[in-house]
Design brief:
- Helix content is 63%, strand content 0%.
- By secondary structure, it is mainly alpha-helical.
- Helix 2 runs parallel beside helix 6 and helix 4 packs antiparallel against helix 6.
- The termini are far apart.
């Protein structure tokens, strides 16, 4: 009997990755989103209203990195040995590659608001 491969829902990383992604998107809403909208040809006076999120950006980034740390711990920690796993059972050692890929996508997404103030002078 081989155990099932752990999914992101079983490891508890899916909610943490979701929170990290949403927090990173909101944190970049004040700075990166207007630039991306202008590059896409979308304009209007309402874009200036996105600056209201700016005071919350550091807190949202902290939430994003805390959720990423939690998800990373759940995804990359050594799993406890199950009672029905053999010594060389490959199914017990197999990690969820899709969840790990999403972890790194969200991590890069969370780094965008941190890098935006550093690269912004190049565009102005």
């Amino acid at each position: 009997m081989t155990p099932a491969v752990s999914s992101p829902h079983e490891t508890g990383s899916a909610p943490a990755l979701t929170v990290a992604g949403i927090a990173a998107l909101l944190a970049s809403g004040c700075c990166v989103a207007p630039l991306l909208l202008a590059l896409a040809g979308i304009s209007g006076a309402w874009i200036g209203q996105l600056r209201r999120i700016e005071p919350w950006s550091p807190w949202l980034m902290a939430l994003s990195f805390a959720a990423l740390a939690f998800a990373g711990r759940r995804l990359y920690r050594r799993p406890a040995r199950a009672a029905n796993c053999g010594v060389d059972d490959a199914a017990c050692r197999q990690a969820n590659g899709a969840a790990r890929r999403w972890f790194w996508v969200v991590a890069v997404l969370a780094l965008v608001p941190l890098a935006a103030p550093l690269v912004a002078p190049w565009f102005y």
